[in-house]
Amino acid sequence: MYEHFRSESQTEAWALVFAKNLNPGDVVALEGGLGAGKTAICRGICKGLGFDGTVSSPSYSIVHEYPNNPPIYHLDLYRLKNANDLYDIGIELFTFSKGITLIEWPQMAGDFPLNITHRIKIKITGENEREIFVESPSLRQVFISLGTNIEPREQRLADARLALKNEEPLNWQESKIYETEPWGEPDQAKFLNQAIGFSSKKTPQQLLELCKSIEQKLGRQKRGKWMEREIDLDLLYCENEILESESLTLPHPHIAQREFVLKPLCDIAPNFIDPKSKLSIKEMLSGL
User: Fold this and answer.
1) d(Cα 171, Cα 173) in Å, to the nearest integer?
2) pTM above 0.70?
3) Bigger pLDDT: 59 or 244?
């Protein structure tokens, strides 16, 4: 999964949102060639964490420390002559601290036991263009179905997407928008449906609460089952989680019967395997 940007300002804006996913103790490794935009990402992350100063590429020091809560440590290891110098600058104080550490050129650290929680790999694809790949072993793949059949339908979907992306920007995916017949209660207007995917550290319950909070903020009214909706956000999958509780069932119990869920989901995750049926999304869609 990756993001594609055409300017340094876009890169910085993405990093500002990405910072919302960071917690004290996280170590972010940035890998990429000269001019790839690593410093722009550091600048955006620092802004996103509340630091109101500027971050420039340090030509005079390997380490920058920014007083913040949590504190931010920016290490530009490109200027290291010897990986052993890491001990001289006390890198362990940063990587095992309660702050957030941003490390440029982590490969310069050699065999030092860096507790890296996020890797951002940057690839230059053209003049001022780059692709950013984000890896985090603690993140889980999440899929959510969006639906509305009350005008303005397009705007309601756009508002829901924006609210979700502001909270969960990592590895963001969105399907095409489909107009579909109502399901369960046919005597109502047609729906617009879409599927959204992203990576998240949140628990299934936290994701459910996020969906309900967005629905409420966007004006969803209480009505009978399968009736018209201002906006509907259904949590479909949280990685391979299988869960049955009073408030939440995962995977969503009606996925296999709903073309309006499977068709948009197939746009972004055709090979995702349902943890219960062991079928891929495209296999489930073809079986309808």
Assistant:
1) 7
2) no
3) 244
